[in-house]
Amino acid sequence: MLTRTAKYIWQHLRYIPLWSALTYSKWRGFDTRARSLGNVFGWTMRWIPIARRRFDREVLRIYPDMPRADRLNLSRKMGQNMGRTLFEILHNTEFQARQDRFHISGPGLAVLEKAKADGKGAILVSGHFGQWEAVRAVLKHRGMETAGVYRRQSNRHYQRLLVRGIEQGGKPALTTGSNGTKAMVRHLRAGGFVAILLDEKTVDGEMMPFLGSDALTSVAAARLALKYDVPFMPVFGTRHNDSSDIDVEFEAPIAPTDPRTMTQTFNDNLSARILEKPDQWYWLLRRWKDMRR
């Protein structure tokens, strides 16, 4: 009983900083509120030792010679981008109304429009890069509502806010794991679209190169795309420097070959984008941790 009570209190305590940041600028304009939370996250990455050490551990794996001053600057910029992204996800209805801020390109949008007309599903793959929710915002605005896949949060407050934001962006909100996979299959077979972030490690994934180092990567999405003959399409929302303008890119679907080759093609694509704009990727995923050990 004491353990359950302590856990309940700890969840509240962990939620206070986010609640405070969201409440502080509640009556200001959308951009001002988004920038405020971004600044809070940027300050956290710059000055909180545990966050800075975790960031340095991952960045030095890829950039072993990066000077400390450059790492501090990169961590601050990453924090600002991720804070803005989180705010926009948690206020997804307002975010989706800002269609004039989304700059759309790529051949994939026409492919999705045809798939929708044919009653066929699609699997959209991206990563924790830029503002990935902009992709679903563009599709929902065009009558192609897209399910979002997320990892369940241990904190009940984060879980509640996250699910609400994801559902505002497009239903259904699907969890990772066996139950979520079954629901995803039903959704695909019914002609639905699904958006998945493939840069999270999974215990049942395969080791394959990502940013030049082997990382556990799930091939399940590519396997489903092959099984149900639906497009396996890289999509990205790249934020303009410290602004609410976002380039939403729908790339051509990856050629259907085999799950590992298709997933590696996506890994290479995302890696190139991260190397070009490292401040737009969330470096705290512990991407190279082998969960199978």
TrEMBL record:
Main location: membrane
Protein's cellular compartments: Cell inner membrane
Keywords, alphabetical: Acyltransferase, Cell inner membrane, Cell membrane, Membrane, Transferase
Record GO terms (molecular function): acyltransferase activity
A Pfam family reported for this protein in Swiss-Prot or TrEMBL: Lip_A_acyltrans
Descriptive protein name: Lysophospholipid acyltransferase family protein
Organism: Aliiroseovarius salicola
